Backbone:
């Protein structure tokens, strides 16, 4: 696939923001001042050019692609871009660990588990999908500060789940921003590099993540090749166009049949369906919709759909295509399989719960055989919250 990439600003705009240059140099100047007075015996001299000593912070698949690029650069002895590379990641309940840890161990890179960051000397830190606020004390340990590979065109979609919100809101354009981290708040630092790509039609968050992870990794290497100049030319983020990309909770997966259009439901499915199945209520039981499909015009022309008065949540089994048709605010969505105690195909669900024989023998009223919006308890439960990092696709 060919991807059209363009810069979000032209040459010369890096100096345009008021106060942009002094702020973008803040980390370097603070470290330079500190290094003049340190007498603890460490080598605190600031390097003016590569090779750099890099400490990487990351967790998931998006971050793994960035780490892969850094490792490849370290292994490339001809270019001499990176001399030292170590990794910081977060604890994981999985015995194998998160993707970043798996790659680091496989590549024999030193790994530290947050909040341990090691005791070595580094020139610059790099963050991708880390999901933890870094203190000012930690940031100031790096002469060139800490860079963040963020998969959105900041200031749009600040926060831990930018790719999910890009898909969820139907954005046509997205991109990657390489920025310099500031303490206390996520994604507010100066922009060092930003490029955009069109969002492929009907792409899932996972598919979009793969595109943006490769773009971001290449952009980071480009910034590291000219790091002092990139920091010098950094520009402040505009005050306009700020949007937030908060974490996704299980409640996000509950379909609101009366409120959501078919397009909104499909966007929700493409955004989070691979990590949280969409949920609804069936006869007072939670049911998960596993495989959603768009309904073609031939199915929509079926007289069975056009001759009835339907309400949102109404279900019709379409025998020819073997899908469940569910009516929402403005039309239909198709469902190929569900999970109700166990995984059922649309045909299995029809035979077990929608067939006239079942309705007759169970004395269920036909108007009760519909999906209803699942209302989860308003009280927040820790186990129902997903800690999602930048790519928001962590396990």
Residues:
């Amino acid at each position: 696939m060919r991807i059209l990439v363009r810069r979000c600003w032209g040459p010369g705009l890096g100096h345009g923001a008021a106060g942009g240059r002094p702020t973008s140099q803040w980390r370097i100047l603070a470290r330079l001042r500190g290094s003049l007075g340190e007498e603890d015996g460490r080598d605190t001299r600031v390097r003016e050019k590569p090779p750099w000593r890099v400490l990487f912070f990351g967790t998931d698949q998006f971050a793994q692609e960035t780490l892969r690029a850094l490792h490849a650069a370290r292994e490339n002895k001809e270019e001499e871009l990176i001399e030292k590379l170590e990794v910081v990641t977060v604890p994981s309940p999985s015995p194998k660990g998160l993707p970043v840890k798996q790659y680091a161990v496989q590549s024999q890179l030193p790994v530290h588990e947050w909040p341990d960051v090691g005791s070595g000397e580094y020139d610059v830190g790099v963050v991708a999908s880390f999901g933890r606020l870094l203190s000012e004390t930690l940031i100031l340990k790096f002469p060139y500060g800490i860079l963040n590979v963020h998969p959105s065109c900041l200031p749009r979609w600040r926060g831990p789940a930018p790719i999910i919100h890009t898909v969820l809101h139907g954005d046509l354009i997205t991109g990657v921003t390489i920025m310099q981290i500031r303490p206390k708040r996520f994604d507010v630092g100066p922009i060092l590099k930003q490029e955009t790509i069109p969002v492929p039609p009907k792409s899932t968050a996972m598919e979009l993540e793969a595109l943006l992870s490769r773009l971001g990794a290449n952009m980071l290497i480009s910034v590291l090749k000219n790091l002092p100049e990139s920091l010098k030319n950094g520009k402040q983020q505009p005050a306009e166009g700020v949007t937030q990309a908060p974490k996704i909770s299980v409640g996000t997966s509950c379909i609101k049949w009366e409120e959501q259009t078919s397009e909104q439901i499909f966007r929700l499915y493409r955004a989070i369906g691979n990590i949280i199945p969409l949920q609804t209520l069936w006869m007072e039981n939670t049911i998960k919709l596993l495989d959603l499909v768009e309904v073609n015009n031939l199915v929509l022309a079926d007289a069975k759909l056009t001759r009835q008065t339907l309400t949102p949540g109404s279900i019709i089994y379409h025998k020819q295509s073997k899908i469940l048709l569910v009516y929402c605010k403005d039309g239909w969505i198709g469902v190929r399989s569900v999970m109700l105690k166990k995984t059922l195909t649309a045909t299995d669900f029809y035979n077990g719960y929608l067939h006239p024989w079942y309705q007759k023998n169970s004395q269920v009223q036909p108007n009760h055989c519909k999906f209803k919006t699942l209302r989860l308890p308003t009280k927040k439960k820790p186990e129902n919250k997903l800690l999602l990092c930048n790519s928001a696709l962590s396990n």
Remarks:
- The CA atoms of residues 72 and 119 lie 24 Å apart.
- The two ends are 28 Å apart (CA to CA).
- The first strand starts at residue 6 and ends at 7.
